[in-house]
Design goal:
Blueprint (H helix, E strand, L loop, with lengths): L1 E5 L8 E5 L9 E10 L2 H8 L15 E9 L11 E5 L8 E5 L3 E3 L13 H14 L7 E4 L5 H12 L3 E6 L2 H10 L3 E4 L5 H7 L3 E6 L6 H7 E9 L12 H6 L3 E4 L7 H14 L1 H5 L7 E6 L3 H10 L5 E5 L1
Helix pairs in contact: 2-3, 2-8, 5-6
């Protein structure tokens, strides 16, 4: 099979495509012939040597894909060879074949083409599990999304808006902020020349903050929370070590939660995927929430795709096609 391999850790230039031995499905796994794979920030960290795959997972980069069922491992029911699916992965997506625990395989939502479906699993599972299952965002509450023009941000804006929340988001250019507003953001904040804390406080504070920055935003996020607000940290683009003002958090009776999806046991990921299919897939099928794809590139263009993601010039998801 074809797969992206790395000559070492470093920049995008360490990535290339090579022929490697085919993977086979183990008990409880589904083998997928990959049509497309989505890029995620975690992929860049893995390439740089900062985010290794969980024990037992494929060393090949790639945390989501779409494709067709190629074979079923022992004990797998509910799927048939040839069915179109998408999947949440612990690794292995940048390849022509990937073996996935059956509980992390999902049907392609109605009305979505097979390639575009690769843009959905990671963002849908991340947003639904963190904003709704963990933070419990309710209708008429306020959500602040950092990086609203990215894959996770564009999905979070749409989903929260459709479910009745007020949405604030940050972005770095007027064009990206206008795009976020078209998706349903009520307030847009240019982080280059506006103070998101002041804007959010003027709006009454955020009941939930979805944060991909980590350390550099920690203190400011706490100040932006409403009373009984919940800060959910899902990334570390701004570093890993920050200072937390406990007194400010106590005054707000706030909560800070840091979560990862990739390292969770497969049983937990299966439960999240099942909840996503139940609650989110119907909204994708009827067009209320749509995957935003910046563009597609061939698997052999993986280095170029990583460079594009690092530049921050994209809006929505970047996909590698096979």
């Amino acid at each position: 099979m074809r797969a992206v391999v790395a000559s070492g850790t470093g920049g995008p230039e360490v990535l290339s495509v090579a022929e490697v031995p085919d993977v086979q499905p183990g008990p409880g796994e589904v083998l997928i012939a990959v049509a497309a794979a989505g890029l995620n920030r975690a992929d860049l960290l893995q390439r740089q040597g900062f985010y290794p795959p969980p024990p037992g997972a494929s060393e090949v980069i790639g945390m989501e894909c779409s494709g067709t069922v190629a074979a079923l491992g022992e004990g797998v029911t509910g799927w048939a060879v040839g069915e179109e699916v998408c999947a949440l992965l612990a690794g292995g997506g940048y390849a022509s074949l990937v073996a996935v625990p059956a509980g992390q395989v999902m049907p392609v939502p109605a009305g979505v083409d097979l390639v575009t479906a690769a843009a959905i699993p990671e963002v849908a599972a991340t947003v639904w599990s963190n904003v709704f299952m963990v933070a419990g965002l309710q209708p008429d509450e306020t959500l602040l999304v950092h990086g609203g023009a990215g894959g996770i941000g564009t999905f979070a804006i749409q989903l929260a808006h459709h479910l009745g929340a007020r949405v604030l988001t940050t972005g770095g250019t007027p064009e990206k902020l206008a795009f976020c507003a078209d998706l349903g953001a009520d307030v847009t904040i240019n982080y280059r020349d506006e103070d998101f804390v002041a804007v959010t406080q003027e709006a009454g504070g955020a009941d939930v903050i979805l944060d991909n920055m980590g350390a550099s935003y920690l203190g400011r996020n706490v100040h932006a929370l409403a009373t009984e607000g919940r800060l959910v940290i899902i990334g570390m683009q701004g570093g890993t070590t920050g200072e937390l003002d406990i007194s400010a958090l106590l005054r707000k009776r706030g909560a800070v939660v840091a979560t990862t999806l990739r390292a969770r046991p497969s049983e937990e990921k299966a439960a999240i995927c099942a909840s996503v299919v139940e609650h989110v897939w119907p909204l994708v099928a009827d067009g209320s929430v749509r995957p935003i794809v910046h563009g597609t590139m061939a698997l052999e263009q993986v280095a170029e795709a990583h460079a594009l993601m690092e530049s921050g010039e994209h809006t929505g998801k970047i996909l590698l096609t096979l």
